[in-house]
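Dear support,

We are seeing what looks like truncated structure output for some complexes. This example has two components. We would appreciate it if you could run it in full and send us the complete token output so we can diff it against ours.
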Amino acid sequence: MAAGYNTISMGSGRSEFHPRKPRPDLEDYMKEAGQKVLEQIGGAEHVDECMVANFIASRYNKQANLAAFFPYIDQGLAYKPCIRVEGACATGGLGLVTGIRSVLAETADVVLVVGVEVQNSVKAVYGADILAAAGYYKERKQGHAHFFPGKFSDRAGAYFSKYGREKTRQAMAMWYRNAIENARLCPTAQEFENKTGELEELAFTEPNPKMFVDHLNVYDCSKVSDGASAIAILSEEGLKRCGIQKKDVVEITGMGQAEYDLTQPPKDPVSLDTTRVAVKKALDMAGITIDDLATVECHDCFTIAAILAVEAMGFAETGKGPDFILQGNTSRNGKIPFNTTGGLIGWGHPTGATGVHQAVTIWEQLTKRAGGAQIKIPRNKPYGLSVNMGGDDKTLVSLVYKKT
Amino acid sequence: MNYIEKLENVTVLGAAGKMGSGILLLTALEMLNQKLKPENKDKQFVLYAMDVSNAGLAGLLEYIKEQGIKYAEKNIVGLRKAYASRKDLVDNEEIIRQFASDLTALVRTGTRIEPAFESRIIFEAVSEQPDLKLDLLLTINRNSRQQPWFFSNTSAIPIAWLDERAGLMGRIMGVHFYNPPAVQKLLEVVKTETTNPELSYFVTEYLKNLGKIFVPSYDVAGFIGNGYFMRDIMFAETLVNQLQKDFTFSQSLYMVNKISQDFLIRPMGIFQLVDYVGIDVVQFIMSVMNSYSENEKIHSPLIDKFMELNIRGGQNPDGSQKDGFFQYKNGKMISLYDTGKRRYLQPEEYAGIGDTHLGPLPHSWQPWKKLVREKDKEGVLNVYFNELKSSPHPGATMAVEYLKKFREIGTGLVKNKVAFKFEDVNSVLTKGFHHVYGPVNSYF
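Here is the complete output from our reference environment:
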């Protein structure tokens, strides 16, 4: 992978954002991100195939058939094969693996992947209806008004009951602080301009079940975001064609995909089993362990999801995720820096783009392009890992990236 | 008769007005929230919206629908539970639309008074004309078989006067909403010596369910809110007159407005607040209060002068501010009317000289918008008022004088048995007028 690009993650918190003023739309974000990748790979003529990862523009924007926006990005993409993929919040990850499979199948040497979502087209209360499509629709009636916050609130409640509330809430607060502090280092992050002094104090705001959910407050949740991320997937032949040097790419050495039955509740509310399976597959394929990783981008749609992900990846035993986080291990100077530009909570979560954004972030870190957000990549740990989750631990994509 | 039975049939008089439409909305919300409870599902709630303005009534249902949608959006967590038995309503959007539809369905609009004869509760929110109010109350009471309870939104007329003249035998209470009723949390409630206690129980339940807070007031014309406000206007006018010895009218009015907003850290200057309420409304309230005032003249020649010039302030139907003492653009003051030159002047014609004379604000000053979010308001205000008191500049000196008068008005309301206690006066000022401190305090 090479030539990544992220647009701004637009939404509340960005000074450019005003809900009543015109903003860029789907095609604008796709064009910005797509063109920036094309510039880095020498133009549209080098591209064999395109993937657009978008969860649900047909409802947020009343727009479908997004693959046909590729020629709008660049006329040089006209008549090339383009595909739109969808897998809820793991859509971006699915876009990447679909592109990777094309390269592995030798049907393409250069694949342009663009992830995009524009969600501020509706108020959050209606966005909750749209996002609920990532769950089982027949559960919608019984579900919470804020459907997914409700799902993860239930998980948080179960976790509190089993392992204790106080320490878990402390870890959730620390996760929030890390996310915002990391986002402040990345100019495209939605929370880049967040100047709040007492982040952890804010994160300890008591949940208000009357207006929101039982066990989470709004700071435990990723925000509503618009934006796009794009990256190129290239074979060795593709790299030569585009004139890209090895030092500027990351190699995909592991890929793990897993699905779980959408109609079924989690087997265990305090465990992300599908995440565990996908990560194991990716690490096994790469032939590494978590000890070889220099950085991780995990799907922290909610702070409790981050704790559960830390455990599912194997960094901490079940029930010990909060300790691992509270010891500072996941902070940018810790043992294993997580979500170095803020993750979903700090950088933003334009759903279809998120998986691609994770890939771009790891590519930036491993190729030393992360600017103010750059972390140290140890020589003996040249790997990064991304985990992109769709629904309540239903659709999972995990990738292992290696510095070349 | 219990709370629900009383609430089943309600009339709002003056429903198309600014206050009436707000009371109508709140009552509709309370009715629907009650109806959505399983035990009330078979009850039939009816809300008559009466007004003389057909044009006003025409837009009323749309207003109720829009506000219903906003309410439902905010309260969707509870509404999903309330509509849980409706299997056809799955998405938030479907529930929100149903709620707005159900809310609108409660309301029947009309210009004729007869439907009110069936109502058990009458909210009266017509304009502050004693004879008009009296006529409506008399007519309904004479023709109704329901022995209705009357709740008057008057902000000036004594309730006992209405009770006695309309022969209501204690079936009336003052329930004075602040503008806009749907937003403002505070109300003043007024009982007379003969008010039936059941009315008080009803109002307590009704306001509690709406999330409102209320302070009791003695039945004295103007009650606490206008008792303070009218006297504040009158004092501001005396300051304008004093300043006019050395400055033009516009410069003087600008300075007093600035002192009352910036130096006193209030959300609006006193004359901006008059524009917001309406110069005509203020004149009317003063005249009503004055007619009941034995020892004090409640009157403002300045208000009269602007009324003679047909400059009335108040708001347009879309909520935008009409021109008054000031001219407004997008809600901001852009110019000030000069009664001598008979035109609005640009700021360069009055602000520079005014600002220079007033001098700087104390170093620790914070704008109202910032101070309302401050956790340690008391600490900040202590420092600020100490600086203000020691400042040699005329602006600070006049502000201290203004604050002393503010305190005098506040304590006078208790002394003259308008308010029951100082805390009630402070509550009205902080929760109704959104000041960051009340007149009775330890700062000055």
